[in-house]
Amino acid sequence: MPATEVADIAALRRALNKYDPELYKAMNKEIKVALKVVQKSARDLVPAYLGSGLRNFQGDSTTAKSRTSRKRAFPKYDAREVKRGIVISIGASKRSQNGWKGYYSLINRTAAGQIVETAGRLNPSGSSESQSNNPNAGAHFINVLNHNVGNFGKYGKGRKNAGRIIYRAAEEDQGKTRDAIIKALAKARQTLVFGLGKAA
Question: Which of 69, 109, 140, 192 falls between 20 and 30 A from 17, CA-CA?
């Protein structure tokens, strides 16, 4: 996702873990509760079926696993797996191009889920490098996803901050969950500082 990024969050997490582990656990628990709201909304956006236009993409995940090939098989869309793959991540992410790290995120772990989330984000009409015999296959794939899943939602600036499931759920949340996370961080920081002050 949609990751909540706060400039001094790494220092706060270290201090909490060192001086008040129970407060650290309580803060993370409160943040998880907030993130579960968007997680549920995102899972609700996952359609059970993508329509007949993408029948080759659909089927349970064991279909792709049974293929024998040195190359990784193109994943199959299984709504149950995609829903289960939308998970809360707590911990430092890779540093972004802007130099930020996200510590509380909602991510789409399955390959099929990531495809549904982002297909067409860079090339709305399909990639010119497609190996399909059908030159319009990419555009068709993206159009079917837009019709059956929905158009991109945006959370943040830039072309990469858009998606059909998690990003759309985050956009529709209108910042409520982000505000709740920031409030939990601020409350934990205040409690820690007050406690250290009393100890001093």
Answer: 109
